[in-house]
Amino acid sequence: MSASRNGLPKRPAADVGETTAEVVEAAPDFLTADPRSHAQLRRVALATADAVAAARLQDQPFSGADPAQLAAAIATIDPCPDDGVALDELLAQLRDAVLAHGVHVSDPRCAAHLHCPTLLTAAAAELAIGVTNQSLDSYDQAPAATLVEDHLVRWLAATLGLSGGSGVLTSGGTASNLLGLLLARERAGARAAAHGAGVGGLPPEHVRWRIVASAAAHDSIRRCAAVLGLGTGCVTAVATDDAGRIDLGALDAELAALASAGLEPIAIVATAGTTDLGAIDPLAPIAERARACGAWLHVDAALGSGLALSPRLAPLLDGIELADSITADLHKLWFMPIGASALLVRDVALLAAVHHHSDYLNRPEDEVDGVLNLVGRSLDTSRRFDALKILVGLRSTGRLRMAAMVERLVALAAGAARAVDAHDELELLAEPSTVTVVFRWRPGGGEAPLPDDLIDAVNVAAQRALLRSGRAIVGRTRLHGRVALKLTFVNPLARESDVGELLDLVAEAGRAAARAGVAVR
Amino acid sequence: MSASRNGLPKRPAADVGETTAEVVEAAPDFLTADPRSHAQLRRVALATADAVAAARLQDQPFSGADPAQLAAAIATIDPCPDDGVALDELLAQLRDAVLAHGVHVSDPRCAAHLHCPTLLTAAAAELAIGVTNQSLDSYDQAPAATLVEDHLVRWLAATLGLSGGSGVLTSGGTASNLLGLLLARERAGARAAAHGAGVGGLPPEHVRWRIVASAAAHDSIRRCAAVLGLGTGCVTAVATDDAGRIDLGALDAELAALASAGLEPIAIVATAGTTDLGAIDPLAPIAERARACGAWLHVDAALGSGLALSPRLAPLLDGIELADSITADLHKLWFMPIGASALLVRDVALLAAVHHHSDYLNRPEDEVDGVLNLVGRSLDTSRRFDALKILVGLRSTGRLRMAAMVERLVALAAGAARAVDAHDELELLAEPSTVTVVFRWRPGGGEAPLPDDLIDAVNVAAQRALLRSGRAIVGRTRLHGRVALKLTFVNPLARESDVGELLDLVAEAGRAAARAGVAVR
Predict the structure, then answer these.
(1) Which residues of B fall within a CB distance of 8 Å from A200?
(2) Fewer beta carbons within 10 Å, N or C terminal of chain B?
(3) In this model, does residue B277 exceed pLDDT 80?
(4) pLDDT at B13
(5) Superfamily assignment of B400-520 in CATH?
(6) d(Cα B487, Cα B416) in Å, to the nearest integer?
(7) B457 neighbors B442 (Cβ within 8 angstroms)
(8) Sheet holding A473-479: strands in order across?
C-alpha cells in the first residue's frame, strides 16, 4: 500500500469513491463538518443496516451451526490486517460468518433469557452514541449528555416511586447491584469506623456483616458480595414460597437468628422479578423489616422495573418506593439494547460514598460554573451516553404502547402456563408471576412413567437438541433440585400461536430424547 | 390515541407511512424477517445519521451554552410521553437541544481528555450491536459473538505480548482495572486462606495487603481498591521522575519499607501511559521486582496499548509481556467508541477466580457441546457485543493506517511541546512522553512576573473561560501542587497549524484572565 502525502496509508479506493491524493488526505475515517464525512456516515450506516437485515432473514432463531465449525471459521478472520478491507467486503464476511450465526432476539422461538428484541429507534441511537462519543465522567466531555442523563435518572427514580430521587446509569444489572451493595457496605462501614470502608478498607466488624436475600435472588448478588470483599458466604438464602417470593416467616427467622448470633444484616435485597419464576418479593413488608433492623434496602428490579410503565401492573411493585436503592434494567422489559441499566437512589446524596476527588476530572472550582461531573456518582470513569438511546426509545414509542407491550408479555406468560397445563406431556412447575413459565417434559398420560433422574436427563437433552438444531432456544435451570425448562417472554411480537408451536417443539424434542434415553438404558 | 386490533396503541401514522389496521398491527418496532422492518431500520439509521451530522456543522468544539440554560431546556423534554413522538420531530428536537451541545470530538480544539473521535465504521457497528442485541454472558444468547470475542481477546493479548493469553472485554478502563486487581486480591486470598476471599470474604491478613503504584497511577486504582474492600489507603503513591515514570529507587525503597513493616505487596500496578504526562513506567524492571516479591503485576495500558499498533512505537511497551494482567482501552488510541476496554491475562485460567456456577447460565452439561459461556470470565452478566465494533473498526482501517494515526499523535505532542517552549507566555512543565503536553500560562518576558498563586488562578480562569465560550476545550490538572493545563492528542485529524491556533487561544485567554485578575487585586 502506498502512502499519501500526509503519511497515512491510503484507504481502499472503493471506500472514498475517488482516488486523488487530495481526497485520500481527507479520507473520512471520522465525522467532521466536511460533507464528505457526512456522506460516508450515511454510507456506512446503511451498509451496516443492510448486513444486519440480511442476516435476519432466517426463519428460525439460530442457524444451528456447530460450535467447533463456527469457531474454526471465525478463527480465519484476521482482526487487524495490514491494509484495511473495503467495507462492503468486510460486512459481507461478517454477515455470513458472524451475524447469521447469532440468536435472533425477535424470533418468538428465542425464549430462553431476559434478552429482548430492541426498539429500532433506540438501536439506531447507538449509532449517534458511537459517533458523538460523549464520555459521561465529566461535563467538559459531555455537556448536554450529562444533563440528559441527570434528567432521565430523576424521571426513572420518580417513575419507580423515589420522588426526588436520582441515580446513575450503568452497563448492566450486575453493575447496578454492585453499586447498590457498595452503598450499603459503605453505610455499615461508616457506622463501624470513623471513616467508611472506602478509605481504610473493611473494618474487622465486616466478618459479622450479612446481606439478606432470598434463595431466588440473582446470582450477581453473591458475585457482587465477593467483589466487595464480603465473600459469597455473607449472602443468606432465605426460603421462598411456591411462587418464588421470599417467605416472610423465614425472613423473620433469619433476622432473629442473625441477631442472636451477633451478626449484622447490613442490607436486605428484595427482588422484583426473579430470574426463573419472575416472582416479586413482598416489598412493603420487607421494607418494614429493613427499617426495623437498620439495614439498607436494595430492590433488584432489573426485570420488574418495566411493570411501572403500566398502571395496571405497577401495583405489583407496591413498596418499591421504600427502597434505599433500586436496580432497573432498561435492556429487559423496556426493550432497549444492552447496556441500559440504572442504579436509582432515594437521595442523590447517598451516592457521595463513591465520590473521589480527582485533579483532572472532578475539580471543585468547576462547581462555580454550575458544572456537574457525573464521575462522582459512578464506579466507572469513561462512560457511554446510554441515556440517549433510552430517551429516543421511550419518546418514539410512548408510554401507552410500552405499557401495552409489557401487558402483552404478562398475558402471554399466563396463557403459556395454561397451555402447558393442558399439554399431555408437559408439567407446569410454578404459576407464572410475570413473564416466565417454568415447566418440564415428562411422559404423557398413556406412557409408562420415568424416574426423576431420567426425566432430568431428558429435559437437558431436549433443551440442548433444540439449541443445536437452531429451531428453538428455551431456558434451562433447576427448581427444587430438579431440571426445569423455562420460557421467558420478552418479545412483544410473540403471539399465542407461537407459544403453542414452541411447546410442541419442546414436547417433540422431549419425546425424541426419551426414546433415545430409554434405548440407551 | 385509538387502539389497533391487537390492543397496542397505534404508532404515529408518519412512522409507518400507511394507516390501515393491518400495517399498524405490523408496525416495525423491532427488526424481523419482514421487509417492512428492514425498511424501517434503514429509515431510522439514516435519520439518526443525519441528525448527528447536522449537529456537527458548528465550527467550534462546543456551543458554549450556559449550563443552567441548557439544563432548563433539557428539563422540558418529557422522557416518556403517553403517545410516541414521530421520529423526525423527535430527532430534530434532540439535535437542537442535545446533540448540538455536545463536545465535538473530531474538532482539533477539543483536546482535554483521552476522548477520541471514533472510526465511522466502528460507530456504525454500534447499530448492529444494538439491533442484534447479543448478550455475551452465555453461548445461547450469543453463539458467534461469544466466539468472536474469544478470538479478539486472544489476538489482543498476543499483540500486547501475552502470547497464548486471553481475556475479556469490559465497559471501560476502570472496570478492567477492577478485574485485574480482583485477580490479584484473590491470589493473595488463596495464599492466606484455604479458600479465596471470594467465598469467605477478606481474611484478617488483608489489613497488611498493599497495592504498589506510582503517584501518577490513574485514580481508578484507588477507587477500585475501595470497591474491593481494601480501601484507598492500601494504595501507595511511589514517587515519579520528572517525566512522570515510577522512580525505581523509590519503588525499591517502598518495597523494602513494606517488607520491614510486615506488609505484603499483593500487586504492583505499572502504568503504560499516565493520565497527565502520558508516561510509561519502566515495565521490565518493575516486572523483575514483582516476581521477586511475589506480587501480581498489573499493567494499566488503557492509554499506551495503542502504541503496540506501530512497530516504531511498540518498543516503548517493552516488558509488558511480563504482566499477569493488562488493561487496554480501545476507546482511546484505537479510536473505537466507548466502551471498548479489555482486561487481558497471560493465561485464561487466571480468570477462574471470577467463575461462579449458575444453574441458568453456566451449566456444566453445556461443556459437552463445546459451548463457552463467557459469564465465567467477567464481572458482568448481560454484556454487549462490543467485540463487533472493534473488529469492524480494525479490519476496515488496517494496521498500517491505525499505526500511522498513532504515530501522528505522538509527533503532534512532540511538536506542541516545541511550540509551547517557543511561546513567550507559555511554559512547558514536562517533556511529553506520548500524546499529552502539560504546560501553563504565565506572563511573557516583557511583563512583570506574577506570584504562583495568581498564575494558578489565571490558568484556572483561562481554561474555564475557553470551555464557557466553546472555543477550545483544554485539560486542567495539577502538577507538583500547581495548576497545569494539558493538551491531549487523540485526534488524528489535528494538524500542526491547529496546535498553533489552540496555543494562541490559550495565551489570549490567559492574558485576559490575568488582566482581570490583576485589576481585581
Answers:
(1) 231, 233
(2) C
(3) yes
(4) 37
(5) Aspartate Aminotransferase, domain 1 (3.90.1150.10)
(6) 9
(7) no
(8) A110-111, A473-479, A482-488, A436-441, A426-428
Chain B positions touching A202 (Cβ under 8 A) are 201-202, 206, 229-231
Nearest to A125 by CA among A103, A152, A99, A159: A152
Q: What is the radius of gyration, based on Cα positions, of chain A?
A: 26
- B125 burial type by CB count under 10 A (0-12 exposed, 13-18 middle, 19+ buried): buried
CA distance readout (Å), B156 to B69, B138, B341, B394:
44, 22, 11, 11
By CB neighbour count within 10 A (0-12 exposed, 13-18 middle, 19+ buried), where does B18 fall?
exposed
Q: How close, in Å, is residue A123 to chain B by CA atoms? A: 5
Of B31, B41, B112, the CB nearest to A140: B112
For residue A18, give every residue at least 6 positions away whose Cβ sits within 8 Å of its Cβ, in sequence order, or none.
Answer: none
Across the range A227-254, mean pLDDT stands at: 97
Tally Cβ neighbours within 10 Å of residue B387.
Answer: 29
Which residue does chain A place closest to B475, by CA atoms?
Answer: A360
Alpha carbon distance A275, A304 (integer Å): 10
Interface test with B, best of A85, A147, A332, A365 (most B CBs within 10 A): A147
- Of the partner residues B81, B201, B218, the one whose CB lies closest to the CB of residue A233: B201
Distance from CA of A11 to the nearest CA of B (A): 7
Distance (Å, rounded) from C-alpha A502 to C-alpha A59? 14
Task: For residue A8, give the nearest of B33, B366, B405 by CB distance.
Answer: B405
Residue A46 · residue A454 · CB < 8 Å: no
How far lies A234's CA from each of A207, A209, A212, B388, in Å? 8, 7, 8, 38
Exposure class string for A436-451: b at 16+ Cβ within 10 A, else e: bbbbbbbbeeeeeebe
Residue-wise DSSP of B265-306: EEEEEEEBS-TTT--B--HHHHHHHHHHHT-EEEEEETTGGG
CATH topology of domain B134-397: Aspartate Aminotransferase; domain 2 (3.40.640)
Q: State how far the Cα of B27 lies from the Cα of B45, in Å rounded to an integer.
A: 17
Q: What is the ipTM of this complex?
A: 0.94
| Residues of chain A with C-beta less than 8 angstroms from the C-beta of B204 | 204
What are the sequence ranges of the domains in chain B? Answer: 34-101, 134-397, 400-520
Give the separation between CA B445 and CA B515, rounded to whole angstroms.
16
Query: Which parts of B193-282 fold into alpha helices (H)?
Result: 197-200, 219-227, 248-260
Q: Do A358 and B171 touch (CB under 8 A)?
A: no
User: Which pLDDT tens digit goes with each residue over B72-113?
Assistant: 999 999 999 999 999 999 999 999 999 999 999 999 999 999
Furthest-apart CA atoms within chain A: distance in Å: 82
Q: How far is B61 from chain A (nearest CA, A)?
A: 10
What's the full length of chain A, in residues? 521
CA distance A21 to A311: 62
